Amino acid sequence: MNAHSIRHIVIAGGGTAGWMTAAALSKFCARTGVKITLIESEAIGTVGVGEATIPPISKFNTHLGIDEDAFVRETQATFKLGIEFVDWGALGDRYFHPFGSFGFDLEGIEFHHFWSRLAAMGEAKSLEDYSLNTLAAYAGKFLRPEESHGPVMNKLAYAFHFDASLYAAYLRRIAESQKVERVEGLIEHVEQDSETGLISAVTLQDGRQIAADFFVDCTGFRGLLIEGAYAAGYNDWSHWLPVNRAVAAACKRSGSLNPYTRSTARTAGWQWRIPLQHRVGNGHVYCDAYMDSDTAERQLLETLEGEPISSPNHLRFMTGHRRQFWAGNCVAIGLSGGFLEPLESTSIHLIQAGISKLISLFPNTTDSPIERDEYNRLMTDDYEHIRDFLILHYKATTRSDAPFWDYVRTMDVPDSFTNKMELLKNAGRFFRYDAELFDLPSWLAVSQGQGWGPQGYNPMANMLSEDNLRQSVANMSGVLAKTEQAMPTHEAFIERFCKAAPVPMEIK
Length: 508
Fold this sequence. Notes:
Blueprint: E1 8-12, H1 15-28, E2 35-40, H2 57-63, H3 68-74, E3 78-80, E4 82-86, E5 94-98, H4 111-120, H5 132-139, H6 150-153, E6 159-161, H7 164-177, E7 181-184, E8 187-192, E9 199-204, E10 209-211, E11 214-217, E12 234-236, E13 245-251, E14 261-266, E15 269-275, E16 280-286, H8 293-302, E17 313-316, E18 320-322, E19 326-327, E20 330-332, E21 338-339, H9 347-360, H10 369-395, H11 403-410, H12 415-427, H13 440-449, H14 466-486, H15 490-497
Parallel strand pairs: 1-2, 1-11, 2-7, 4-14, 11-20
Antiparallel strand pairs: 3-6, 4-5, 8-9, 9-10, 12-18, 13-16, 13-17, 14-15, 15-16, 18-21, 19-20
Helix pairs in contact: 1-7, 1-9, 5-14, 9-10
């Protein structure tokens, strides 16, 4: 190591972001001699909006050596096959955004082009009938795909619903077993080198000073280090994604253990339902320009399926991200780096993305402008790609029953969104930009579900005769239906492999 090598990393803040970072960095730093300290205070609450996830979380857990069944038990988790959207395109509409793909490609051409051709002939079933995830979700089925199950079953993709606070506690145990030191305390001041401007230490409320070479800001919306020390700035996207408030409450579960999240559009935003083994998480996300907090809370409580087991928790946020995720010798991960509403369950994924990019670009010295610039470029791309996908849900609507929906239906949108949608709406063409998170099946599911589906199809889909097309698609539908029918129920799978121990129903 030279004089400017990274010998000590301080993670400011715990919660999901802090302990995900600590668990991952401690695993990769285990043999390098780099010390990791996490500073958090029990006096500071955490924002619990990230209980639903998307499939890449499995990769993160696998890298940490986590046994999936143990993880599900420890976090009171359930499995997630996608998201059901209610009342988004129009009042009374309902559609499903599944993980995984639709159908099977034929002759090297994507399946949806053949489906669109069949629809033009007036003979296609709903696109959802060609998604194993959708069929299984609505039937309440789940089975973890294994290599021996064959290509049809292995098209099933899944994620989890889990208790974020239990997940953080689970990762804390892993991190501390890998020699991460936890320090209890409130950070009061950030010390910077007078010549370089780099952060040299943080001073706690009780006067203790903790010096380090590199810092990770997981202090939430405050951005105590990234904004407090570096004034990183913020790109405000509330003109495209105007919801800026949320009220959350847990309740007892009275319905079935659905293997999917539900998002129901309301008059000034939307409401989530996330089923866990021990409770149901609920939240009402809304724009305060069109609804006050008392009304939002009342609407949430009136629509709970069971008895509330927590007091309503009100949250404020601004969609967007820091202009610099990495400034000086500090990287902001989680809410300190930015926030995108949890409409597509991307909050925890963005933490994971920030961690993986930091590991890939981990600096050799305390001041590494090349790695810093590339990190900022990649994270900005991630946020912008997800932003455009979220905009689709609001822009692709015919709702005119409330001022909020009038605004989002008619708002101007980024050119990157317009270009993508013109290709998709014209003839179902889609090109994934860089390494953007949401691929064709996701854009297709939401656009088709909300009435913005393809108007035509790739003429290469005419290579099959009509009879061959009918037979191929019918065979495909039959195989998917039989596969779903052979799967166990979601509850039976959990009962057999990963049932969690009961917990007290009182949640603080």
